[in-house]
Design goal:
heterodimer, A: 272 residues, mainly alpha, 2 domains, two-stranded antiparallel sheet, elongated, B: 255 residues, flat
Chain lengths: 272, 255
Amino acid sequence: MARTNKKLSPETIRKAAIRHNCTLEWCWNYERMQATGFAYAMVPVLKELYDTDEEVCRNLERHLQFYNCHPGASSIVAGAATALEEDYQPEMTDSLKVALMGPMAGIGDTVQAVLVKPIAFIIAASLAAQGNFLSVPVIMIPFILLWLIRFPLFKWGYHRSVKVIEDINGSTTFNRLREAAQIVGLVVVGGFCPSMVSINIPYTYTKVINDVTETVAIQDTLDGILPYLLPICAVAFCYWMLKKKKLSPLKVIGILCAIGFICGAVGVLGVA
Amino acid sequence: MSTLETALIISVALSIWVVLGAYVVSGLFNPLMTGLVTGIVLGNPILGLTIGGTCTLMSIGFYTYGGAVVPSYTLGAVLGVAVAVKSGDYNQGIVIGSVIALLGSWFDILQGMMATAFIHGADKALARNSIKGFERWHLNGIWTIVATNFVPMFVGLMLIDKYTVISDFVDKYAWFQNGISVIGAILPAVGFALLLSYMDIKRYWPFMILGYVLFAYLGLPTMGLAFVGIALGYLYAFKIKKVDDVEAVNESAVE
């Protein structure tokens, strides 16, 4: 066994980062999810640390255990794992992966699902609705930036090594980041979602005041009470079905399609 | 161009795009892009963009937490745009797109199952001490992704002429037309509700009301909302001492 204090070359670390950041999910499967992707990233690392193919393969087998994380935040895990492999601590590496993948997935998923994706998608979709091609860079740039961040994250994980666990558990920075992400998401979604559900009530009626006939649209009356009242009701109804009735999103889509179709066909609801 | 040619061009282009835009960089393979590419090839980029944009909106709350199965709006946008270009009707495109998106989620399940065979191949390669073999199994896993994206797109686009049965029916009845247009308008509500269900509304509801007031009454645009959100998020999460924290401190002081 090559138990020398070998230091990995910067070239090897770069190779591992590229492999991790570009191919992590290429063989995503139900059995062990991102396992092969993580192991693939460790190949250059293990090849430099161990002399024989046999040793490399035995160590790769350790990395083929179940692994699933947010692909961006996983860069930190992969960086830290590289540092521990470099210290010849296989057991530590494995427990680090298990300990970190949950919390890291939590922070990565929150940032992507409630912050970056909704904001980029909402702005791009509203531009696209006007036929504006600016929507293309608007939807691409945030995700390209999220991808580019993976490289410094890998380096950071490598330098912090096992201390990443303390950073996660000890400080509240990560929790605060999740909290801030939720707040930004809620301000944007709360503000914008009503306008994107474009339904209204097409009914009008006439009334006669002082011999003058006036046409009154029910929608105008509703807007006077609360702007976007119907869209808010639609979102609230879906939320209630998802959260309180515990219906699956697919069922909610089915119910909403049925209600929308019937109301539209009868003429109770129209498109704004 | 013949149906075969357009179907091939779109499916091949988007199969390359799924690898680069979803499995190298993630997030770039979205309904807006797939709709736009389809629109460009079929000669109506604007229709592609608008339908792609609506499908993007519908997909907003669907997120693959831990590999959860979500509707495939990327596929839905492709076939939705194709139908809309064919029939000249935006609403038919949206409704067909939504239905196809739900059916398309089965192909993601298929991909995850197919790739299971590849990880077993990787296991066996390591047992033989073959690093190269292991690497090949991992990298070739991408073909499960290419196949499960290419096949439904290609088959769907080849069958595009069959949709005229539906469009003839729709054209005949105005009430049916009204019904499906309301479906198209109301469906983004599910995505928004789903997104809200991930968030701790009990705790953060005031921020939602604030966003609503800024937008609906004061007419702030989205970027403006985002900046207000960032400022508030920073202040609230990083700067202001939490009521809970203060209470916790007080409680421990009493003990």
